């Protein structure tokens, strides 16, 4: 390897190794006019990347003080991040990031200004909020079961939904914690538990309020389109899970989840429309409510009989029409 000339300490630079989320995973101080990068142990910067050559890259400071990177004849080449064009030589600017193999490098000047420090805030554990949210979900679920109770109370009717919710929360939180541990190095089980608890609490609140409004105000649309709210809450929960795993590319993640939610809503709407065209639109609510919470006024007898007469007239007209000629059967053909 060529002999390198040491530059003054004031001209020292830092070579940063970036992770998959553009976070700095390693930083090497460079005080030489030229350094080599590769997997071999005689390099100035050694990378543990099987897709990097033994002597992959040479970074040199010119007489004008500018730095440049030169490919040392590697098989996989040198690329500027975000470009698919292989480069033999790259002038390194402040924002230039190089990709060699699966590793991203960036050169920073020691005189470069950094952002001011963030204010130190007290760390709050997500566990209290998570446990409160889960407790409220169970309370709302048990309240809904109790309000719909029309016969003798049985413990199994209360235990089955509660155990189902526990299983869903445990599996969901564990999966996201594993993903968080793999991609960010921290499981953050309490944070993911708080996120799913918040989502379930939001849906449970809407479920109760929607049932109340549909019965009390005669607005069945609050329950008919409840699946739309469920899809939106699911998308929001997944977004916060992804943000807990990594804060990189949040707009892209939000757009992708919004598109998936729109697709789910569209598909379910088409299925419901087909079902209603076949079996008709149900006008009854799925849950019984106490008559005392009814807020909408009752229809008058005249309006009821007028609707009945209109329905009778349409049925009589349908009966008077001749049915279409049946198609020939396969046997007749």
Automatic annotation (TrEMBL):
SMART domains hit by this protein: FHA
UniProt entry keywords in alphabetical sequence: Membrane, Transmembrane, Transmembrane helix
Keyword Transcription: no
PROSITE patterns: FHA_DOMAIN (PS50006)
Transmembrane portions of the chain: 127-146, 158-179, 186-205, 225-242
Signal sequence residues: none
Sequence segments annotated as region (Disordered): 314-333
Top-level lineage group: Bacteria
Native source species: Dokdonella ginsengisoli
Gene3D superfamilies linked: 2.60.200.20
Domain called FHA: residue spans: 35-85
Name of this chain's protein: FHA domain-containing protein
Keyword Amino-acid biosynthesis: no
């Amino acid at each position: 390897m060529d002999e390198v000339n040491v530059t003054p300490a004031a001209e020292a630079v830092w070579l940063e190794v970036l992770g998959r989320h553009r976070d700095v995973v390693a930083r090497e101080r460079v005080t030489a006019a030229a350094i080599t990068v590769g997997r071999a142990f005689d390099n100035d910067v050694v990378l543990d990347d099987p897709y990097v050559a033994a002597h992959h890259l040479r970074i040199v400071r010119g007489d004008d003080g500018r730095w440049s990177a030169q490919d040392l004849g590697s098989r996989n080449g040198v690329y500027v991040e975000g470009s698919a064009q292989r480069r033999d030589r790259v002038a390194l600017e402040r924002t230039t990031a190089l990709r060699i193999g699966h590793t991203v490098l960036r050169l920073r000047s020691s005189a470069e200004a950094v952002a001011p420090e963030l204010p130190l805030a007290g760390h709050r554990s997500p566990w209290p909020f998570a446990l409160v949210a889960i407790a409220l979900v169970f309370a709302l679920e048990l309240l809904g079961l109790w309000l719909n109770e029309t016969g003798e109370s049985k413990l199994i009717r209360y235990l089955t939904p509660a155990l189902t919710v526990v299983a869903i929360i445990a599996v969901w939180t564990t999966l996201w914690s594993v993903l968080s541990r793999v991609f960010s190095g921290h499981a953050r089980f309490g944070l993911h538990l708080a996120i799913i608890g918040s989502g379930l609490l939001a849906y449970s609140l809407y479920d109760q309020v929607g049932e109340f409004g549909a019965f009390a105000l005669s607005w069945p649309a609050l329950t008919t389109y409840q699946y739309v709210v469920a899809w939106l809450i699911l998308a929001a929960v997944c977004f916060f899970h992804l943000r807990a795993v990594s804060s990189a590319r949040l707009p892209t993640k939000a757009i992708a989840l919004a598109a998936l939610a729109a697709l789910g809503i569209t598909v379910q709407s088409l299925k419901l429309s087909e079902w209603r065209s076949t079996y008709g639109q149900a006008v009854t609510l799925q849950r019984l409510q106490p008559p005392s919470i009814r807020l909408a006024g009752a229809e008058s007898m005249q309006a009821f009989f007028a609707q009945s007469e209109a329905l009778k007239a349409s049925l009589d007209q349908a009966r008077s029409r001749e049915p279409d000629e049946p198609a020939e059967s396969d046997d007749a053909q």
